[in-house]
Structures are given as structure tokens and as C-alpha cells.
Amino acid sequence: MSAESGTRSNTKRTMRTASATESDPAGPSGDQPVTTAAVHGYTSDKAAYLRRLKRIEGQVRGIARMVDEDQYCIDILTQVAAVNSAMHAVSLGLLENHLQHCVVAAAHEAGTSGSSVAIDAKVKEATQAISRLLR
């Protein structure tokens, strides 16, 4: 998601891991294996998400200042609506990244292994996240 335009990138996200090289699974020291850490689907957009969240944080501080200065209630409510909208945009972007990255990876895994357990778990996880967003 671009912080400036509020749009999400349509670039394809793929599962990436941080690990030792294929020829040297023991890692840099040679004596201990390096654990692989999955990189989340939003990682490529992380800087944009952080910029957007910092902007939202500033908006929330501005709302607190408005309340402290006894600003007109409708003006404060307008700013609250703007923050809610911005948070919704962040939430939808993260959800899209989850679907494109995690759910698709689980579908590939299910296709390879023949077991739908992983895809079922990721779909249930996404459904629960959507449910929380709709509350």
C-alpha cells in the first residue's frame, strides 16, 4: 500500500525465508543450524505501513489536542472518522497481503502434500480476522 496515495500495490508476493545457503545448512558458524523465519506478506510494504501508522498516530495526538483545547465536537468527530478510515485502509491492506501471501502459500502446500489442513487453517484465520474487522 502506498502511504501517499492510499492504494495497494498489485505486485505478486511470494514466500521468502531467511536461512543458510543450500550448500551449507549449518549456517555462518558451521556448528549450529540457522532457523528459518518466514517473512510475512506485508514485508515488502513494511516501510509504507509504518509511515501510514505514524501518520495515524499523529492524527490521534491531534485529536487529543483538540479535546484538550475544547474544540467543537463535530470537528473532533470528523477527525475521529478520518482516523477510523485510515485504520480501515491499513487493515484491508494487511488482509489483502495475508490472502495473497499466506493463504496462497497454504494452497500451494495443500496441492503439494495432498492435505487441505493448512489451507483450511489459513482460511479460518482470515475469516476470523474479517469478523473482527467488521465488529
Describe the fold and architecture.
The protein is mainly alpha-helical and 135 residues long. The chain has three helices and two strands, in the order ββααα. Strands 1-2 form a two-stranded antiparallel ribbon.
Give a brief description.
The protein is 61% helix and 4% strand. It contains three helices and two strands.
Strand line-up in the sheet with most strands: 1-2
Mean pLDDT: 77
Using DSSP, what is the number of strands? Answer: 2
In this structure, how is the largest beta sheet organized?
A: 2 strands, antiparallel
Task: Supply the helix-strand structural class.
Answer: mainly alpha
Give the overall shape: elongated
In the predicted model, the low-confidence regions spanning at least 5 consecutive residues are 1-30, 32-36
Encode the helix/strand succession as letters.
Answer: EEHHH
Radius of gyration: 20 Å
Number of helices: 3
Percent in strands: under 5%
Distance from first to last alpha carbon = 23 Å
Binned, the helix content reads 55-70%
List its traits.
about 140 residues, mainly alpha, two-stranded antiparallel ribbon, disordered N terminus
SSE topology sketch:
Layout: E1 16-18, E2 37-39, H1 46-68, H2 73-113, H3 117-134
Antiparallel strand pairs: 1-2
Helix pairs in contact: 1-2, 2-3
